[in-house]
Amino acid sequence: MVVPSALDQRPAVTEEPEATGSAEETVARTTSHSLRLTLLVVLCVLLLGAVAGGAYLAATRPVPALGIGGEQDAMQSQRESAMNQAQQFMLRINSYGPDQLADDGTMPDYRKLVEEVITPKFAADFEKNAPLAEATVKQAGLARSAQVFSTGVSAIDSDSATALVAGSITQSYPKKPGSDQRVQTEPAPFRVQVSLVKIKGTWLVDDFQPLTGTDDDQGTGTGTATQLPTPTEGATP
Question: Are 108 and 102 in contact (CB under 8 A)?
Answer without folding.
Answer: yes
